[in-house]
Design a protein that fits this description.
It is built from one helix and two strands; from the N terminus they run H-E-E. By secondary structure, it is α+β, with helices and mostly antiparallel strands. The protein has one domain. A two-stranded antiparallel ribbon has the order 1-2. A hairpin with an 8-residue loop joins strand 1 and strand 2.
Amino acid sequence: MSVFEGRSHSERIGLFLAVLELVRQGRVRVRQDELNDPIELSLIEERDPNAPTFLSASN
């Protein structure tokens, strides 16, 4: 099942950006075993201390 099914173009963009932000914050883990396999998202209960830290472009 895709979270994008039945959604408008604007909703799909919003969901995509929200997922990117959750990954950036270390709140969601993304996994894809092989090329063209489905992308799986899993919620992280506590922030992963190994999650990458992103700096703003102004730094």
